[in-house]
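Q: What changes when phosphoenolpyruvate is included in the input?
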Amino acid sequence: MIVVMKAGSTQKQIDHVIERVREMGLKDHVIVGTERTVVACIGNDRFKDRSALETVDGVEKVVPILAPYKMASREMKKERSVVPLIHGQDKSATIGGTKVGVIAGPCSVENKAQLLEIAHAVREAGAVGLRGGAFKPRTSPYAFQGLAEEGLKYLAMAREATGLAVVTEVMAVEQVELVGQYADVLQVGARNMQNFNLLNAVGEQPKPVLLKRGLSATLEEFLLAAEYIMSRGNPNVMLCERGIRTYEEYVRNTLALAAVPALHRVSHLPVVVDPSQGTGKSHLVDSMCRAAVAAGADGLIIEVHNDPEHALTDGAQSITPPMFKDMMKAIRRIAAAVDREV
Ligand code: PEP
Ligand code: MN
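A: The predicted holo structure follows.
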């Protein structure tokens, strides 16, 4: 449930509400809005007496949150969330709000020269984040598994050289600390969307999280996965629609763009679209980027490679730096048409 404070309620009144919430065995989470403050009560409140809070000074009303996810829900927070990509630094590197943030880079970090060349190219074209996997979740155990810490070091070098925020995947609880030392944003991959221990672990560290939708996850399961992270204290979650498994074989995954407005309707979290995993084909990426921006996406994460033919992973869906530059030009026009900016 959420306790909606009256406009102009005092800090003392808010503190008193927090005290009462804790007495009820619930966790408090204060959200200061533009007009009023709300105190969200987290935990199983099914058998708690709401009326006990309703009579407290400064309280306007107490309302139950109907959605099974609470902190991720629109009921909890009406205003859309903006997630900063680089902690306390470059204020323009954000996802959400009026800007559409673009994260781009190779599927995998392959070597230093490759990563730096791509990083400079995407930065020049207007990206705010650099993607690149150092730990790769591969279907086959014989496929390239990533450079691990060596790859993370190259990513940190590329951030130094370009100022781009580093977005990279963490596959296991034991990797969270290491990846957190190098990355600005921790990516939880589609195959790990319901790895609840991993969700808890990224929820307990300070870096923002890019959470990818599971291959066959419903939107409710997706939001409950976000809720795991948020309920552990990390509010900076971005939802990433990366396509789902269907019977269609032409594309690698079916990019469910309706998820963008659907998620916006029920959640305040920013939504990022990945047209690369979402289609599996480089010639479809440009159109899907444009469609995603038109549908209201808050960000894009795109695979860009300087030599897709020889890419160690996902070459078929990687676009080249010139293609990326053209795509950026196109989405700037689309963004303007929907009152956004790239
Ligand atoms: C990736 O981003 O390269 C990746 C493996 O993504 P997903 O988890 O969406 O398959
Ligand atoms: Mn990939």
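Observations recorded in class: The two ends are 36 Å apart (CA to CA).
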